[in-house]
Amino acid sequence: xxxxxxxxxxxxxxxxxxxxxxxxxxxxxxxxxxxxxxxxxxxxxxxxxxxxxxxxxxxxxxxxxxxxxxxxxxxxxxxxxxxxxxxxxxxxxxxxxxxxxxxxxxxxxxxxxxxxxxxxxxxxxxxxxxxxxxxxxxxxxxxxxxxxxxxxxxxxxxxxxxxxxxxxxxxxxxxxxxxxxxxxxxxxxxxxxxxxxxxxxxxxxxxxxxxxxxxxxxxxxxxxxxxxxxxxxxxxxxxxxxxxxxxxxxxxxxxxxxxxxxxxxxxxxxxxxxxxxxxxxxxxxxxxxxxxxxxxxxxxxxxxxxxxxxxxxxxxxxxxxxxxxxxxxxxxxxxxxxxxxxxxxxxxxxxxxxxxxxxxxxxxxxxxxxxxxxxxxxxxxx
Length: 382
Ligand SMILES: [Zn+2]
Known about the structure:
- By secondary structure, the protein is α/β, with parallel strands linked by helices.
- The protein has 2 domains: 9-182, Rossmann fold (3-Layer(aba) Sandwich); 186-381, Dehydroquinate synthase-like - alpha domain (Dehydroquinate synthase-like, alpha domain, Up-down Bundle).
- It has helices at 16-26, 38-42, 45-55, 72-84, 96-108, 188-207, 213-235, 240-256, 263-275, 279-296, 301-311, 322-332, 349-358, 371-381, and strands at 9-12, 31-35, 59-63, 89-94, 136-140, 152-156, 163-167, 175-178.
- The strands form 2 sheets. It has a 6-stranded parallel β-sheet with strand order 1-8-5-4-2-3, with helices on both faces. Strands 6-7 form a two-stranded antiparallel ribbon.
- Strand 6 (152-156) and strand 7 (163-167) form a beta hairpin.
- Helix 9 packs antiparallel against helix 10 (279-296).
- The chain starts with 8 loop residues before the first strand and ends with a helix.
- The protein binds zinc ion.
- Zinc ion (ZN) binds at residues 197, 201, 265, 279.
- Zinc ion binds at residues 197, 201, 265, 279.
């Protein structure tokens, strides 16, 4: 028996924001907590969303203290505001961080702490009562993480000082509104890095073993969209067609990766927690080397077919390897390869490979990897 999940309602394109505001009102909400961060206040997007929600007849309370790597404090402060104003719905506006924080505020406002008890790796989802969670709505302003269709949030808990995943099926936003103009202000470097993250979500999901033809189909089309539109979105941030295509592709990536991710994400995660690298950039720097490792391995006919299928999505596939195609794609987006350019110390590579091996994502890699393999890839990517 298999279980496939595709329940989030997605509003896509110009007008998605006012339509979502209207739906929140029609769903019966009266007071919403708008969860966002300082950057979105500064660029005026929070204000724009706030007035859209107000025009729909909602009372809006703003909580904008979410950090780039959200903490338990961020969640508790938000939950306090939520309860103080007697809110009845949450709107996450931003990249993965505010959307994840909105999800976990939904738990903190309705459950007794500490939050570490809900750690998914410890079976914490069993302690979450889904029936009392308030509805969550997501307005992504980046096109990468796909948190808007995800069923988990990640925060740094006080006890562990580690990134802790909190999961529950009902943390999935009720509506994800993909309004292209909300991503218009993303600078080219972040557009490229988040776009590569979305690409790697699709790629790793498609290469992951296991039967999930729906995820496979979504992943392939997601990659095709990214190959076509990411260079345009990087070159001209005001190209709303390219921006929109990247938004839907990022949502597709996160929908597809319920099938699993792979070694690239295991390698990328410690680079963020230990060396503060942007998650998408970390993925980009490891992508060509990881794919080269997979292609050099002893693959069976089906694995080769899958690699070839991805290869053919590239416009100039010709006789080149998928690793080379990925390398060219990344560098054409003005991402300079080399971990040493990012202030990663060579002496850290051993510790990083230990942490990467402990990360669960590589368990669904196309081929099994050892800690030594991961160290070898960090060394090549250095
Ligand atoms: Zn990712």
